[in-house]
Amino acid sequence: MAAILRAPGLGAVWGTVRGLATAVRQAEPATAGLDAKQMNLCSAVNDALHIAMDENPKTLVFGEDVSFGGVFRCTVGLAEKHGKHRVFNTPLCEQGIVGFGIGAAAQGYSPIVEIQFADYIFPAFDQITNEAAKYRFRSGGEFDVGGLTIRTPYGAVGHGGHYHSQSPEAFFTHIPGIKVVMPSGPRETKGLLLSAIRDPNPVVVFEAKMLYRTAVEDVPTGDYSIPLGRARIARAGSDVTLVGWGQQVLVLEQAAKELAASDGIEAEVIDLRTLLPWDADAVAASVEKTGRLVVSHEAPLTSGFGAEIVAAISDRCFYSLEAPPLRIAGYDTPFPLVCEPLYLPGVQRVVDGVRRLLRA
Amino acid sequence: MDFPGGKVPFTEDLAWLGPGFTPRPTIPCYRALDSQGAPLPGTSLPHDIDQALATRMYETMISLQAVDTIFYEAQRQGRFSFYMTSTGEESTAVASAAALNPDDVVFTQYREQGVLMWRGYTPLDMANQCYGNALDSGKGRQMPVHYGSKALNFHTISSPLATQLPQAVGAAYALKLEGKAAVAACYFGEGAASEGDFHAALNFSATLSAPVVFICRNNGWAISTPASEQYRGDGIAGRGPSYGVPSLRVDGGDAVAVYNAVAEARRVALERRGPVLLEAMSYRSGHHSTSDDSSRYRAAEEMAAWRARDPVARFERWMAVRGWWDEARGVGARKAARREAIAALAAAAKQPRPPLSEMFSDVYDEPPPHLVAQRAEVEAFVRAHPETLPAGMPLE
Ligand SMILES: Cc1ncc(C[n+]2csc(CCOP(=O)(O)OP(=O)(O)O)c2C)c(N)n1
Fold it and tell me: What range(s) does the Transketolase-like pyrimidine-binding domain occupy (chain A) (predicted)?
């Protein structure tokens, strides 16, 4: 299939040269052989938090309704095990939660704060973009808030409407000084969250709330981490590169399966995992191989993070591209309730998009 | 002494004011009825409630209870995705609404459906919104209970907490500039009062002299967070005077007291062209929402004790004392209210969804070119894959 669709030329040569640099990278976490048990994404988060609190007495966990276990039950049992002085409810104020976290982090603590829904992170935006992100830079490196981790559930769930569905990651990828992580499943979430907590920079972790209960898989019970800034090849393929993050990776994997079954198209699915800094090398290596790029996200198209990827890859892989890169995203409206199925870049839209791209 | 920051007296005492030093007295809670509904002698009642008004208030509260019970059940049966009851706070919503004028502009949080019902929003209107059907004035775009009505001067509910507070202040200021004899009434929970927007709103309302009536529903809980973890000091009312806002605490379960407090608040706000803050003390007798199970974080005895103080039963007893109500009428009214709520759900369930053509309207006044193009894309997609169109949704 790939041979038919890709005309070898100058682009392919460039592709080979650039691809070599990343060919040896190991994308899968080194979790093979670890004891594992079935966990959903919520338990995976909980597990990571227990490990972090055990390992570092300066780790704190707080936010709205956190002490009874959180509205999504991610913090269950933490207060009982690690103490109410380390795991506590705050007053209902997101700017307060993040500002308080910044202060504690600047004093050497490792606060893991919960913003109840990503839709409600905006009151804290000033603290994140003007404070957490610039703490180190503005002090000439004397102060930093690297201990700060912000966890927040994001994304569509089927009935959340405007304010329980949004994917606001692109606002945060525009902030030099923080890292942005969006894991795609339970195993990924535990390993990435532990890296985020241990990373010496402030990190925002968007958790796929639709998967809290629905995604269940074997997750290592012990400690492991997945490096930030490194993408994962979720499915290998040679005809087209599909890039996504968070719960959209599942949509892309499903679309890839359908394309293989019905059209014999082998799509490579890349789970970006970290959006800031993102693994351009991994995406470029794949695109140099496939010659075609599709980026897909739930967030609205305009100024979504897909734009950044397409721009960077167009720049790096111009001569390997056999078709214009394609973005399949949410539409440029507020997140709707009854039109949600049409608003979202679902499997069918991705399949259609890939077919169009391969016909081009 | 005149400092630029204020005219203040001097003292030789290095004395702290506040908890642990010189605590300020707790603002007492104004009430007219005891916990059973017996009228308390000597209550100051500047605003009379006559029989017709009392009857309408009572019937609205009964209707509210019926809608809450039946819609809650409907949600449990999976008829729609979400619901929130106002159990325990019926009198706060309905009696306050009764004390406002229809020209007053209302901003709420989400647990104040009684205000809308008082203004004429029907159980059918509510059912249409909860179903997100073609008759929902919000065009099926928001989650259930996010009502709104321009005709009823009720700004559409938005989930982000406390955002409505500074907005209400701006609206009140606009009403003042226009010379209207109307206030903005702004409802919010004690949890929401922890947001920065609360503090911005109180400060703006005082400095810009906006005729706004802030009505805090202090029901003791913000999801699982008890008021004791939400604030220290003298609650929400205690904050008002520090901002320069006259404040009053009222028993939110006492419809007679709430009515008087709000009628008086409105009068003061208009007369002084400035803000007033009320803190209605009550209890969230239901779960936070259909997504919550409050037995996880609060004691069954606490819930039972408060349920026994049902505000509607209290008001009913007060009316009975006056000879304005009897058991048989109450039973009949409850039955009728249940029937209306059930019929509303049945009727709303039969309506189609809003048409696909509404997917891109109202983002702006007119869709810009990129939305026109996206709309064409969705229409083409639906033509190619008719099965992707949500059930019951027409194209136009
Ligand atoms: C900005 C923001 N943060 C968090 C939430 C999630 N949330 C919804 S309701 C609620 C509790 C509100 O409690 P309160 O204001 O006391 O009102 P009540 O529900 O008791 O009526 C929370 C935390 C939200 N909707 N908006």
Answer: 39-214
